[in-house]
Design a protein that fits this description.
375 residues, 10-stranded mixed β-sheet, globular, 12 helices, 44% helix, homodimer, binds 3-isopropylmalic acid, two-stranded antiparallel sheet, alpha/beta, 3 domains
Chain lengths: 375, 375
Amino acid sequence: MAQYKVPVLPGDGIGPEIIVEGKKVIDAAGEKFGFDVDWIEYPHGADHYLETGELISEDSLKELSNYEAIYLGSIGDDRIEPGVLEKGILLAARFYFDQYINLRPIKLLEGVWCPIKDKTPKDVDFVVVRENTEDFYIGIGGRAKTGMSKDLLEVNRTLYNAKFGLDIETDSEEIAYQIGMISKEGTQRVMNYSFDLAETREKHVSSVDKANVLSDIYGFWREEFNTIAANHPDVKTDFNFVDAITMWFVKNPEWFDVVVTPNMFGDIITDLGAMVQGGLGLAPGGNINPNGTSMFEPIHGSAPKYKGQNKVNPIATIWAGAMLIEQLGEKEAADSIVSAIEKNILEAKVQTYDMGGSNGTSDVGDDIARILLEQ
Amino acid sequence: MAQYKVPVLPGDGIGPEIIVEGKKVIDAAGEKFGFDVDWIEYPHGADHYLETGELISEDSLKELSNYEAIYLGSIGDDRIEPGVLEKGILLAARFYFDQYINLRPIKLLEGVWCPIKDKTPKDVDFVVVRENTEDFYIGIGGRAKTGMSKDLLEVNRTLYNAKFGLDIETDSEEIAYQIGMISKEGTQRVMNYSFDLAETREKHVSSVDKANVLSDIYGFWREEFNTIAANHPDVKTDFNFVDAITMWFVKNPEWFDVVVTPNMFGDIITDLGAMVQGGLGLAPGGNINPNGTSMFEPIHGSAPKYKGQNKVNPIATIWAGAMLIEQLGEKEAADSIVSAIEKNILEAKVQTYDMGGSNGTSDVGDDIARILLEQ
Ligand SMILES: CC(C)[C@H](C(=O)O)[C@@H](O)C(=O)O
Ligand SMILES: CC(C)[C@H](C(=O)O)[C@@H](O)C(=O)O
């Protein structure tokens, strides 16, 4: 019998409750398909930080890097300034393990209420591949008074003057700035992944950028996209400005097959995508390093106000669990979990409030595990 | 009789066709309300650029600065690399005239088909105030090989190492980067405007940011928001991460009254907002400098594939025209244009294809002008 060791970070807020359901369903799948998972719990999150001052240490990360896949609940707590936990744990892990693919399926399941008119499951079935280690997520920035500000504004003026013959004056003495960066390797690897994925699907890759304004960073993105696209003459491609793609996600989701996007825009459009597929309670994601340690999580946050109420929908987490065991090689079990989720939704007997039901988090986990074992 | 001089930049693609309808309706309003507009045409756009090599000169901008309001069609052409016209004309004007407010009403008019289920005009009626001169729109960025790259990566490493005790390695030899900047004055003035606006509405201001990741630039934004909010204790406030707000725009548009947002996020969420209000054909915007030269435009682009076909919806442009004459002090005439638009839509007799009709651009302009004169 196959044996897997999987580290679990339940995290904050509703994290622990939903992770319990995810493990429950994976354990049921193990029973059925003949594998066993040894769950190794990690305490990192808000409470641990408040108690010990530690976010996640390099030692813990090194230890975690011995595993192929981590199961993550959710990170974030109102008691702590925004960004501290997110950057110190979630982004630290994505960067440390070089999980350069953030894979987010946008799939409207049969029986799910879609907030968009006239869209059915056949219209909403695409995948967003979000670059996950670069762009504006690198965390470089700062504040400046006169010195730096004058320099930066000088660059600005020079640039506009040179390009457009203008003389723009700004004399603020206090500024904040942020720097984004993408590299050739970082861009090419996520595009290669996207084109390879499209080859197994509808052979269509849509790129997202804002090359008409953030031309330096996203002009480069476009060039690399064209380079990689040239290796896949059978794949249809298009460029989408990030502002416009928010419209198409609502109006024409059926247009998309694989969407490849820089990190920050990917963050934004996948929340919208989650809504189009029926809500955050149904949206899973995988942070993937194909040759290293990956990490699977629901894309929703820690929803502190629902903590401990056995109220929220565990489906995103259970679905992320299916992605996790697929990564471990248990494809059949993964498919079986997704089809159990689909049956639970179609039967519409055991559902949480967000889907119009009145059951608890654990009821839904139980029901999906039951269906899985029976099917 | 009041006399106004208004510069017009019809621009590219469908720009000239829709601007003709906008002028037609404003002229009708002038007839009815006793004012006269002298339209001064400017040629700037793709054709002019291809013929002369000029985008827009400082002389032209200086000349334009003698006027209170400019009427703009749309800028952008497939024959030219993305960004050249947009930055060289549209953004150059926004920056040159220091039009720090980009005002975008998101209002679902009675009779308009909303793509979101269960939402009616009373649910969709808010205003986005987009900062319009700073953030990632300043156009600072570049590419680097070893030298710069090593420096930047060094900052990155140092930052992550210091903050999180990590050692992140990246060794790309070729990168592209982009810098965003916001200033204290730039942030405060757009927030003051937003709170003043909210005082005349539902007294609720929602701020947009991504302070949990782009903490340097948007942590500063939050602080300034709190500073200005303290002067308005009667105004309800909240913070929204940009990813989450795309969901709320779809799920709970009724929540919003005034939304204040940094430039780039404002670009993204107002396209989504336009979709929620029934489509880009219905979404107007104003680039406003309350003490200088403002500029009004539809928020849609130049749609080159529809150029010269008398096909697209002129309503966004006509509505932008109403905002323009309101800025000139003709509030009654402006209201009358908006109510003529509403009647045209409710009657549903003369409509372009995007609204399910089969009429042309000019038919809709004629119809709105007729209704205006008759009402
Ligand atoms: C919590 C936050 C740092 C994170 C992100 O911005 O990537 C989240 O929004 C996500 O999409 O996974
Ligand atoms: C054309 C483009 C430069 C512009 C922008 O990004 O501001 C447009 O999308 C808008 O929203 O007015």
